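$ run holo --ligand "DGJ" --emit tokens
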Amino acid sequence: MDLLERAKFNMQKNRIFTLFILFFFQFGSSQVAIPHLEKVGNNMHLVVEGKPFIVLGGELSNSSFTNVQYMKSQWPKLQAMNLNTILAPVYWELIEPKEGVFDFALLDELILESRKNGMKIVLLWFGSWKNSMSSHVPSWIKQNQTKYPRVVDEIGISQEILSPFSENNMKADATAFNVLMNHIKSIDSQDQTIIMVQPENEIGMLPSARDYSPIANQLYASTVPKELMDYLHKNKADLVPEFLGVWRKNGFKEKGTWEEIFGEGFHTDELFMAWYFAKFAEEITKAGKSAYALPMFVNAALIRPGKIPGEYPSAGPLPHLMDIWKAAAPSIDMFSPDFYNPDFEYWCDLYNRQSNPLFVPEHRFDATAGPKALFAVGHYEAIGFSPFSIENSENKALGKAYALINQLNPLITARHGENLIDGVLLDKEKILTTVVLGDYEFSFKNSYTLGWEAGASEAVWDSGAAIIIQTGKNEFYIAGTGVVVTFKNWKKRNHIVGILKNEEGVFENGTWKIVRHLNGDQTHQGRHIRISHGDYSIQRVELYEYK
Ligand code: DGJ
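-- output --
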């Protein structure tokens, strides 16, 4: 072979090799993409094993995932509530008992157990912070305060809260989290049992609004980092109004110390801490994602009514700090609220701004959990919902709500981001709400307003809730509990809208099976659609118009 022929031969060989590689990646690999968030229309959904997935979750109480035997006794209860996912901690102190020595035996067994029992896991990294405190850091960190410093309060007393200003603290956490994520990748990227991860838990300063250590004082007195000011400048039109107001009050200054730009007060202590907590969380998240890039979110303890920074866990990913957190931590996919307070809709609205998808990792496990799950999935097209301490109460309503969402999953996820779904949540304070889908305006009322259901005379009303899905011009599915629905055509205001067909049924493997044809008293002789309190059901409705 002369030189030219040899060159041609080599080129051909290279082409065949390249084609093989391309072919292999496109068709030859059986690997599905790892769990990820995907933008759909004006919203986002979670994709697991190649399919949209709604987290019907429950968070275990804090110490339950430390024992395989204990967990063995819990699965039947969790399955009976129709959970598809548990939110479960992995504890830094247990996986890295000695510096650099990792032990994943317990976690591995628990992952196998979850698989066997058909549950996905959202893993909670109890690393540097858990409910403000650093109670889950390994003893080699706890006992070496010189190397791993803590925050200090106004009177110089150190707290069991690792300092976010220390490079040593950050590196130790980031290393452990990176090793953890690498391990998960090696044992789970095929099975995809672990679908999302929460770095840290409820980061926040308590009981003082900021750290008063020498380094913190020095940074507090320095100019606000240019990186933050550039972000604020660039995104000024989109900043959340609560934060924009603080900046405006001081004349939208773009250079100066924290107090020069944002004014003096506890609120500025909080902004300052939020920036450095978020910077730290960004490094942890990046370290984890560089090993295995699962979706990652951070959660916040919501502000109790009437409290000022320092009186609640301050500086976490709270709605009024969203801009600071976004500027500092672009690798974090979602900011998520933990609910132990009232005003569910108010807080969800605040979290659902700036394209932040709603995921509720914790909700007090009370009677409202089932209805709120329906509302969150319908109204916000939420990534998921999860009551806390799931294994410690029996709550039939949650299981019924999850069963409905499970049946509707294909219908819902196929319409994500297209304004074809909505959800309502009603109680005695909010008895009525309207939903517009297509040509129709639906009035949803708590079904106790009819006056004839037992419970209507109680001082506190059970929550009514529903998901409504438009599947055709005149066809809708309504699923929920405790609602009564009437309808109008907002385009043809002088027409009357009647019920052409109303069926109660179930989806079996995606196919609608009619259980009852509803008419007579069940529709108030054609005047309304109704699902009573206590019932959790799906109804198909076809509407028509007459004059
Ligand atoms: C919120 C925390 O995130 C949970 O881990 C747990 O401590 C609950 N509070 C307890 O109410």
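-- notes --
The two ends are 89 Å apart (CA to CA).
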